[in-house]
Design goal:
Layout (H helix, E strand, L loop, with lengths): L22 H18 L17 H19 L6 H9 L9 H22 L8 E4 L4 E4 H27 L6
Antiparallel strand pairs: 1-2
Helix pairs in contact: 1-4, 1-5, 2-3, 2-4, 2-5
InterPro entries: DinB-like, DinB/YfiT-like
Pfam families: DinB_2 (PF12867)
Protein name: DinB family protein
Amino acid sequence: MATTQNLEVWLRGTLPDMPPYLQPVAHALLQAREEVQFYMQNFPEELLWERPAGVAAVGFHLQHLTGVLDRLLTYARDEALTPQQLEALGQEGKPLEAGEQVQTLVQQFHAQVEKALVQLRKTPEEILLEQRGVGRAKLPSTVLGLLVHAAEHTQRHVGQLLVTSKMLQVKAPEA
């Protein structure tokens, strides 16, 4: 029989203090956090900003995971983006100035997932269908739509990050 640690997060049971309708969102974010931690733990710093076949760099995905989750949660709270959030958006895809970039970016993503979980726990289910505007154009969505998209978008970029990281780490066949 499988232990709970070998199971994907959604198969480990309900999360305490998490509204029932938001359990899948929380499960997806926790799964993403675990996968990023696992696949990035030995990722070489020198490959972080490489773009094989022109795809987005692993570093971009790590920055974008954090940034987009922050922005979507802001819209779900019915708030406008701050100047700091807009600046961070403009910095996505640009290397950090110094330090261990891989672990710094992974830690930033982990912290953003924690913030998301706090917000999910505090979100009353009665507001899930309330209208929310997205972006400067205030495109129509709902609280639930934004939260589900936050989870879906996070999963999408984790998948892209994992494929790109594998592409970069595979050694070319010997001739």
